[in-house]
Sequence to fold (455 residues):
Amino acid sequence: MTVTGQRVLIAAAVVGSAAIAAQDGDRTAAIRERLMAGQARSIILFLGDGMGDSEITIARNYAVGAAGRLAMDTFTFTGAYTTYSVEERQPDLPDYVTDSAASGTGWATGSKTSNGRISTTAGSDRDLKTILEIARERGYRTGDITTAELTDATPAVLASHVANRACQGPADMATCPQDRKSAGGPGSIAEQEVDHEVDVLMGGGSSRFEQATDRGPSVLQVALTKGYRIVSSAAGLEYAARGQRLLGLFAAGNMTTEWSGAEALPYPSNIARPQTCDTNHRPDHEPSLAAMTAKAIELLDGEPSSDVGFFLQVEGASIDKQDHAANPCGQIGETMAFDRAIRVGLDYARTHPQTLLVVTADHAHTSQIISVPTDAHPPVGLVSALRTKDQATMVVSYATAPFHQSQDHTGTQVRIAADGPQAANVMGVIDQTDLFRLMLKAMKTGSVRRSTEQP
Fold:
């Protein structure tokens, strides 16, 4: 088939109408149709932790084939953003490789900070106002869900301010004593998330919320006094209904990965027999990220005639964690689980056109697709061979920390894609801090009337 004769299907899933079909690769009309200015009734930010272009490509190749497309590939507007943080002692100098705390602070507050900090300034330790806090002030309902501990860096940046990301629960405050409530501070991340009265909180990390506060009661007990319904299983989610806040804690630590398989090893291990991943690893009592996303939208969305919207952040957290562990099946499974959650958002936006959807990552990571190695050209680091959807062999290499247990982040720019009001502003190369300003511009100004019900 000639290029001229090909029909290019530009995927389903964009705001306001059905899929777009463009002939001869000309998307001009389609893009023009998707240009939306104005403000958003609701904003959903999908954040793939550690999901660089390599991680997306690896998952695509394995699960749908090299010529296939994921839900995240179907957005009309796509660009890239830079991810660097800054030095703690010299904040005017860039730190080219960010961690999740500093990167999250960038899009949550519009300001750069140093690695390890949660929505506080490098050096001076001042609190930085977050997009979630602004959303609440403007009348939006708010949600924050993740497959990591709820107190991990990415969910934490929206609803807490501490000097160190390690200060997750009241018993974890050694590195930020000034933030203890007994010292006049705002408390641990868990305490602050509850004190912020975020309408929907879901993820792992129940052990942090079970810790006693300085005043005696556990964080869970404090949550109950603030009107939270606490659930601990996928079945329990069925009983959560609009009208009260939800705190879903589905694991003591991070939630279980969707897929499992053999970790990468030094060459020539894992090369002769390409592996196929086990796709049934998550236990039934833990909800999928897609299920949590659907429930969060259900709880946060007002009546069809209501002008009350919401801000929701959805994190696919363990793409990063499995990349650190050099576990390609775990990493791919988490990317695909994240993609299914994105599809939930796309389905919602199709019938709610004033929804801004953004898909991005906090930083890139180590995994790379390489040629099949040979004895004459052995690779450095760890490798794994996988049998893909195409029935071909794909070799994935992890070599940022060949002599250490955990692989490292990388400092490259990462993808950002969007649809809905203000979405075109992701095009080109921007910075993480620009995402804060994009979402702020999309939010309705002034006070949006909130329903009398909670959330």
